[in-house]
Amino acid sequence: MEKKYAKAYTEVLEILKHVPKEELDRIPKSELQFYEDNCDKNYKYEYNEELNVDQQAISREANTVIVAIYMNYFANDKQKGIIESILKQNSIEEEKQKNEKYNIDKIFDNKEKHEDAEHDAEKLPVDVDKKEEIFIKKIINRIKKLFKRN
Length: 150
Hints:
Blueprint: H1 3-16, H2 21-24, H3 29-38, H4 60-73, H5 77-101, H6 104-149
Helix pairs in contact: 1-3, 1-4
């Protein structure tokens, strides 16, 4: 199990300690046992009783587990619909961000610009080499002329 999920299960278990027993009983014992078996025993998470659950500093993974627990065992159909709508919107937004970040047109645009720059850079030394070669030939020719005069 990944370490971040083990920490998330530790956070979830700590939060669930503050849920009334009659509500906690709605969650299957097997699911609670899964969290217990897979939590990070060395990680310490402190639940702040002065804050609401939505104000607690918890990881994204723990938040996901809490949302899943709420949807599966506490939410009515209307609440489930609202949560599913929010999750769908979040997914769409995340996909848009990925598309912008990894836009194929932009990637190829940047690659072409990069290749053009490389091509220009490759041309530059060749041009410099030719200029140097011409300059060296001029010097050699002048030296030859000096020798021919003597």
